[in-house]
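Homework help board

Subject: predicted structure for assignment chain

Our instructor gave us this sequence and asked us to write out the predicted structure in token form, then describe one feature. I got the tokens but I'm not sure how to describe them. Can anyone check?
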Amino acid sequence: MSSLDWRMPRWFHQMGSPKWFYEWGGRLQSWFALAALVLLGWGMIWGLAFAPADYQQGNSFRIMYVHVPAAILSQSIFVSMAVAGAIGIIWKMKVAFMVARSCIAIGATFTAIALLTGAIWGKPTWGTYWVWDARLTSTLVLLFLYAGVMALNQAISERQTAGKATAILALVGTINIPIIKYSVEWWNTLHQSSSFSLTEKPTMPAEMYVPLLLTVLGSYCLFALLVLMRTRTQILQTQGHTKWLTQHPDIEGV
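My token output:
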């Protein structure tokens, strides 16, 4: 046992077992699906239909209920991908590499949505769809990083080697995350400072903040659901020959 192993709780090592992850992932999927449906549905309907119009932006601000969760998740998913990759390298967990691999397309999609909705929001607010603003540019760099990780992962056929290589690239790419977060403070930009935080007092009325909070939490649940589904699919593809999986009740008769 390595010097690192004894410090980690039992559940941490259990997560490295494809069998354990597949079974528990299957149990959690329905809960995350329900939570995502309720939170996103509730938040979107409240925010898009019933929240009061902004006194400056009018109804155009409502795109915030899509843009802000997508922007937050784009960064969180990249960090999650890097952490999962680091766990795979340090503790040699194949499942961790699978989780990291599952994050790539999901994170890239959220980043693309954040850029697209930001451009749509920017037109009525700034008078243009795009400016080379520090926040926008660093988010565009994040999309390129996702594309680079995806290309590197697909270019290497050996899965373990691909997992290590993409983990290293993701870890290096995390340097862009604090640049995105603090860009509005470090540089003079058109982009407003963050209006949403889980740790600070809201700067907007409760009737605007609460539906935004619901959509953010719902987006995290959706992310968790998609990661579980994609990782379990990878386990099926790589562990399909194993006895425990061929006899699994979800597989028998399929």
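Reply (TA_rk): Your tokens look well-formed. For the description, you could write something like this. Residues 20-52+60-242 form one domain. That's the kind of observation they're looking for.
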